[in-house]
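Fold this complex.
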Amino acid sequence: MPEPKALIFDVFGTVVDWRASVARESVPWLQKLGRSDLDPHAFADGWRSRYIKIMTDFHKTGREFVVLDVLHREMLDDWLGELNIDPSSIGEEGLNEWNMAWHRLDPWPDTVEGMHRLRKKFPLATCSNGNIRLMLDMARHGGLPWDAILGAEISKSYKPSPETYLGTVRALMLEPGEVCLVAAHHGDLAAARKCGLQTAYVYRAMEFGGAPSPDTTTPQDWEYRATSFTELADRMGC
Amino acid sequence: MPEPKALIFDVFGTVVDWRASVARESVPWLQKLGRSDLDPHAFADGWRSRYIKIMTDFHKTGREFVVLDVLHREMLDDWLGELNIDPSSIGEEGLNEWNMAWHRLDPWPDTVEGMHRLRKKFPLATCSNGNIRLMLDMARHGGLPWDAILGAEISKSYKPSPETYLGTVRALMLEPGEVCLVAAHHGDLAAARKCGLQTAYVYRAMEFGGAPSPDTTTPQDWEYRATSFTELADRMGC
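Structure:
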């Protein structure tokens, strides 16, 4: 297997701990709404579970591409509705500010050191469903040294659709087999492999707070496997 | 005038010294072709002069968007033809390698320090006609700390077309008046101002080796004015 010429990354769950961060960001809003009885981690899980469903089915709906910020906001409204929470006391502005929680996700403890090591050898780009502004804000928040923000917004399509991977590969002016997707989710890696990409699985035990991942795609024999970005850097000779 | 919320940059001439870099990169190729009699700076000027003409008229031609690497290669072929140079001794591979000269342009001496200072306060993005891979390689070559690579390839249009500026502004999820274009060319700034952007002019005396810039658009009273990125950082309170 030839060494890849660039690494592209799933971000939510792989690079950053969305669950703990969205929980933290949601605490003051749940308080304002008089619902501090709710577990903020369970709240984050409910928000995220809508994401997984919407992404998998997005292209079947025939809906025109809209950025993830728009979809995250719709998921928030839907989740609040299911919880019978009336958000009128925080209003549109409050809901939009709450929605920005996704722009302020913290990296896993090994992320930044691992990225700096990997980046000495490989260009690093996002291949996330997150929009450009979301990725930009998150990178400035967490100190993530991306070489480029690619993925959904530049390809106008959502993973696991092939076009998200292939549009990202094209922007890098490489062949699919020259690019390796780094991800914590077997379904993401399986979709990338179908497009001809190399794959690196990073196990993130705490993505769901210790509970098993809802990503039930059968694990395969990925080209690389690690439990942290620093271990991945070791395995890739960085 | 409110302070901008993000800075976007013209790159060729403003951030990097294309002329000295393309001249340096062209020397070995001119030697291989037996034309070391040609002045490499004049060679660079001839290559670049085609760029200015093609960009201004690109959208009038009705041609579908292609990335700048493709256009740079066509300009090289055209320029070699005008010089009666037969490139067969270096072949397609050589011509494509020579064309990559534009991926290895050096920053001006004040660029990297100025960008690091400006970046503490503002997100920094490219608004160049250069494609993503070109900008990525150049950033890794010169150590340019971009937050995002935007501009032509993400908007599928070339400056001075309004869509290049407005597509870049949309990706940042800002209003045009919240974004400031930094450029060394009056025509670029004038086109951005027409779209509602703020403008910062950086005078690059040596872009054409000391000769006057062919950018003949009447200078206007730009919001900011400096002779280096470090001076611009001073003026912007960074």
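Strands of chain B lie at 6-9, 124-126, 148-149, 179-183, 198-202, 224-226.
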